[in-house]
């Protein structure tokens, strides 16, 4: 996990850097000649977040079971948040004057769920062809596309993920048709008129990569490279080699000035990966392929933040641990394609047991509504296989682990004072099938309340349609 | 003899199906919609349920199994699944669910593709699924063909009833298959039924074998069984207007035995469905406007249908986690009953929606899907509430035969519980 933290710090530095700040590193270089023009940095954040938290009241939820998202559990505990931030978590807390006090007898409080793998917005419902915006399947390398330019903020799925799933943060990825599918975007799960107004402030970008059957099938069927797994790796390596050269040119220019190299929007993204600003989110099923990708990352000097789906991650839990690479997985999906044939319900449990970084993910507009239940299934498989994992520890898979793998764990993912008040009150144990969210707060604002139909979002698309405003 | 061989093969220390077994002391879930019964007894003999409930006497000579602290239930019936037709869905070579390039449509009989040794059968059996309503997928016509009822037992005799129903697409998907519109799908349906009747009236004059015949003789024969009500017609529709169109079909074809499938907007026409006495096999938790035919989708659909008196079963279609996701679906329907404004099911109704519900929908409620006397003895002992995510089966009987509790998935798990290799490669690690 250290490597992930390092990358986040690097990114923050990059975001803060002003166009001329590169001279701070110029002292290590030979003195620039007077003839060279000073370097001009290209914008790293041209579509900036305009998200803001909505107003909330200081709120104390007490007499509840708390999973703090970091493995801690307090029975009969309390959570206090105000001004959009978590203030305190403890056994007993006093309510500040004017605070809303909720007695949570029999209920549970957790951090909001973070889904690291979603296509809400870029494959929105209705799933008509006109909404198919997740795969730029016209070339195997499309590092130049950004998922945020496809996200439709009116996707009805966002509201379902909030109300039924307690999801407060999610990463929207390009699809897996391409080897390098483009940049991801991290969103707060709060409806807005624009994508920018949903964008998680300061979250690093991700690069979606894919190995295995999808890219070779998509391009093989067009009779072009890659049509095999070896073709997948060949195209990746060729592209990384170019990216290394691109980075060298631009690093030199940004340090020394002179004539600016040609811009290449896709190469900007790969340069961001090579310099640790952009995290690699790599779709990959098979254990042997993940091992090859890890070597390829070493070869070109980048880090794979997480393998997604990683149906066979359990076979190489030790390798993932030593590489500091996470696995974001389903609970029990298997058998729907050749590379998912060896899926087992113990995948996540074996990873955890081996000390590897692991988490749950959805990749599905229905599954995202029940990620807590997916973890409950993992816990059942674990315990029936003799692997003991506590409920409180398992909540890490739903919030802190994905927050870390998104580089936003300083802001969200657990109920630590000072973090965003992304909080779910469940009407029972969230690992029971009989439990649902009762209230969901995002940055301290109450945005779903099962008892108040006015606190239930209705996207533009659903407004005025049959069942508009109904429970969904 | 077959069963005896099976028992030897699987090295089970259990009695043959003929022996009487009494499972005592558990919480019994019959699967007929009734509430669970604490401290009940289930007696099975000759592959059938003898009795289940409270105060059931243990017959002399019965093998007694103590299920105190456990649950004893009917096995789960997976409705609308490609289980046993497919090894891996995306692997076309392994996939017999549809036949895009076949000249035959309604005639297709999926029972001939059932593979009792498919690894998914054992995988799903270990999670409590004991029967399946195996359904072809429509790829070259609105008619998908004839589905089969199978059991998930560890034996070669999987097919309980072949050619048990016909499946037809009549919503958005039907329109596409028929050439581009819903009216085209209805034109096709009516013409196919008319041709089937032509075939009955004068088989000798019926074309049916020329290259441009719209309906083959085999298709006509299959459709006559539908028109005569010998088998139910499962019609996939989602939109309220499409549901009404299907409900109107018996005015033209009075012997049709309709079952509605999908039905995400069913709650809008629940009273009409109930009045028509048509059962529904519904997508349990479909709450998104997945297409323009699902705009009114809500998780309360099943609850509202049930409240209006419609018999509802749940479909496992498209469950990437396997057919056993059905019990999670059913549990969620209990959960939403606690949400203000939502309508769910009580526990008994929810459990029935994945046991007797699907069995009754296809006219086999007297044979499978519950622990009522006389049904085939598909019995599961669970270590807790069968709808709860923390529970798993600890013992399973199908047709009264005790089933092995291993699968390819347990083999993989055991090989990799400790992922590092030992003295020899992993390929040498097995039980």
TrEMBL record, chain A:
Task: Report the coiled-coil segments.
Answer: none
For this UniProt record, give its keywords in alphabetical order, as a comma-separated list: Signal
Alphabetical list of SUPFAM superfamilies matching this protein: Composite domain of metallo-dependent hydrolases (SSF51338), Metallo-dependent hydrolases (SSF51556)
Pfam families named in the record: Amidohydro_1
Tell me where on the tree of life, at the top rank, the source sits.
Answer: Bacteria
Domain spans labelled Amidohydrolase-related = 108-444
The record's annotation in InterPro entries points to: Amidohydro-rel, Metal-dep_hydrolase_composite, Metal_Hydrolase, Metallo-dep_Hydrolase
Kindly indicate where the leader peptide sits in this chain: 1-26
* UniProt protein name: Imidazolonepropionase-like amidohydrolase
From TrEMBL, chain B:
What Pfam families has UniProt attached to this entry?
Amidohydro_3 (PF07969)
User: Per its record, how is this protein called by name?
Assistant: Imidazolonepropionase-like amidohydrolase
InterPro entries attached to this UniProt entry: Amidohydro_3, Metal-dep_hydrolase_composite, Metal_Hydrolase, Metallo-dep_Hydrolase
Recite the UniProt keywords alphabetically.
Answer: Signal
- Keyword Disulfide bond set for record: no
**Limits of the Amidohydrolase domain:** 300-401
Q: Does the keyword Cell wall biogenesis/degradation apply?
A: no
What is the residue range of the signal peptide feature? 1-18
Taking the record's annotation, the residue ranges forming a coiled coil are none
Q: Which domain of life is it from?
A: Bacteria
């Amino acid at each position: 996990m250290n490597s992930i933290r390092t990358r986040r710090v690097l990114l923050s530095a990059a975001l803060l850097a002003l166009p001329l700040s590169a001279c701070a590193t110029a002292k290590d270089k030979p003195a620039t000649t007077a003839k060279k023009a000073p370097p001009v940095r290209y914008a790293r954040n041209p579509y900036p977040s305009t998200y803001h938290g909505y107003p909330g009241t200081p709120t104390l939820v007490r007499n509840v079971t708390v999973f703090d998202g970091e493995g801690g559990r307090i029975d009969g505990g309390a959570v206090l948040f105000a001004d959009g931030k978590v203030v305190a978590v403890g056994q007993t807390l006093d309510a500040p004057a004017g605070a809303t006090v909720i007695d949570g007898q029999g209920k549970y409080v957790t951090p909001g769920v973070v889904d690291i793998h979603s296509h809400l917005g870029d494959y929105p419902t209705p799933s008509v062809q006109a909404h198919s915006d997740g795969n730029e399947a016209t070339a195997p390398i499309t590092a130049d596309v950004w998922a945020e330019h496809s996200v439709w903020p009116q996707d009805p799925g966002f509201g379902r993920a909030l109300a039924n799933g307690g999801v407060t943060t999610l990463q929207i990825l390009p699809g897996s048709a391409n080897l390098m599918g483009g940049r991801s975007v991290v969103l707060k799960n709060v409806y807005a008129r624009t994508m920018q107004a949903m964008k998680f402030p300061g979250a690093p970008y991700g690069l979606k990569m894919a190995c295995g059957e999808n890219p070779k099938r998509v391009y093989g069927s067009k009779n072009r490279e890659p049509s095999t797994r070896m073709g997948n790796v060949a195209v990746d390596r060729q592209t990384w080699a170019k990216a290394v050269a691109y980075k060298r040119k631009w690093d030199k220019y940004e340090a020394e000035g002179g004539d600016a190299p040609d811009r290449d929007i896709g190469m900007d993204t790969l340069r961001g990966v090579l310099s640790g600003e952009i995290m690699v989110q790599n779709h990959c099923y098979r254990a042997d392929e993940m091992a090859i990708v890890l070597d390829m990352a070493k070869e070109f000097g980048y880090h794979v933040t997480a393998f997604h789906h990683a149906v066979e991650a359990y076979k190489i839990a030790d390798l993932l641990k030593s590489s500091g690479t996470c696995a974001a997985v389903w609970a029990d999906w298997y058998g729907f394609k050749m590379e998912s044939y060896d899926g087992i319900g113990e995948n996540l449990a074996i990873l955890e047991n081996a000390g590897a970084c692991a988490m749950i993910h959805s990749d599905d507009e229905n599954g995202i509504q029940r990620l807590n239940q997916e973890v409950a299934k993992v816990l059942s498989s674990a315990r029936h296989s003799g692997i003991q994992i506590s409920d409180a520890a398992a909540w890490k898979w739903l919030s802190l682990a994905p927050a870390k793998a998104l580089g936003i764990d300083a802001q969200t993912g657990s109920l630590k004072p000072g973090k965003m008040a992304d909080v779910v009150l469940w009407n029972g144990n969230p690992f029971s099938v009989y439990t649902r969210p009762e209230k969901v707060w995002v940055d301290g604002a109450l945005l779903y309340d099962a008892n108040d139909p006015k606190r239930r979002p209705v996207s533009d698309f659903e407004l005025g349609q049959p069942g508009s405003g109904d429970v969904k | 003899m077959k069963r005896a061989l099976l028992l030897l093969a699987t090295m089970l220390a259990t009695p043959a199906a003929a022996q009487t077994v009494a499972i005592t002391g558990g919480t019994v879930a019959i699967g007929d919609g009734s509430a669970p019964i604490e401290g009940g007894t289930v007696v099975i003999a000759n592959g059938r349920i003898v009795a289940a409930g409270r105060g059931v006497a243990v017959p002399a000579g019965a093998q007694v199994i103590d299920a105190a602290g456990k649950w004893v239930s009917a096995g789960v019936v997976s409705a609308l699944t490609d289980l046993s037709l497919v090894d891996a869905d995306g692997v076309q070579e392994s996939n017999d669910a549809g036949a895009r390039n076949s000249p035959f449509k309604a005639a297709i009989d999926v029972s001939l593709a059932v593979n009792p040794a498919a690894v998914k059968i054992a995988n799903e059996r270990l999670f409590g699924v004991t029967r399946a309503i195996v359904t072809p997928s429509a790829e070259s016509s609105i008619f998908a063909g004839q589905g089969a009822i199978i059991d998930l037992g560890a034996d070669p005799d999987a097919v309980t009833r072949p050619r048990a129903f016909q499946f037809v697409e009549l919503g958005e998907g039907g329109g596409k298959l028929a050439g581009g519109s819903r009216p085209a799908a209805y034109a096709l349906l009516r013409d196919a039924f008319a041709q089937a009747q032509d075939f009955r009236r004068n088989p000798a004059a019926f074309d049916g074998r020329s290259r441009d015949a719209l309906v083959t003789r085999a298709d006509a024969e299959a459709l006559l069984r539908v028109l005569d009500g010998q088998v139910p017609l499962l019609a996939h529709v989602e939109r309220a207007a499409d549901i009404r169109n299907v409900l109107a079909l018996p005015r033209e074809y009075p012997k049709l035995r309709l079952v509605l499938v999908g039905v995400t907007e069913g709650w809008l026409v629940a009273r009409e469905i109930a009045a028509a006495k048509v059962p529904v096999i519904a997508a349990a938790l479909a709450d998104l406007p997945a297409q323009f035919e699902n705009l009114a989708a809500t998780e309360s659909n099943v609850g509202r249908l049930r409240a209006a008196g419609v018999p509802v079963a749940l479909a496992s279609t498209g469950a990437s986690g396997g057919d056993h996701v059905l019990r999670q679906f059913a549990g969620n329907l209990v959960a939403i009953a606690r949400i203000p404004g939502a309508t769910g099911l009580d526990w008994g109704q929810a459990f029935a929606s994945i046991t007797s519900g699907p069995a009754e929908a296809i006219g086999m409620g007297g044979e499978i899907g519950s622990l009522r006397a006389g049904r085939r003895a598909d019995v599961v002992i669970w270590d807790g509430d069968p709808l709860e995510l923390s529970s798993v089966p600890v013992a399973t009987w199908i047709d009264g035969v005790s089933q092995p509790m291993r699968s390819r998935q347990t083999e993989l798990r055991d090989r990799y519980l400790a992922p590092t290799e030992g003295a020899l490669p992993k390929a040498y690690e097995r039980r």
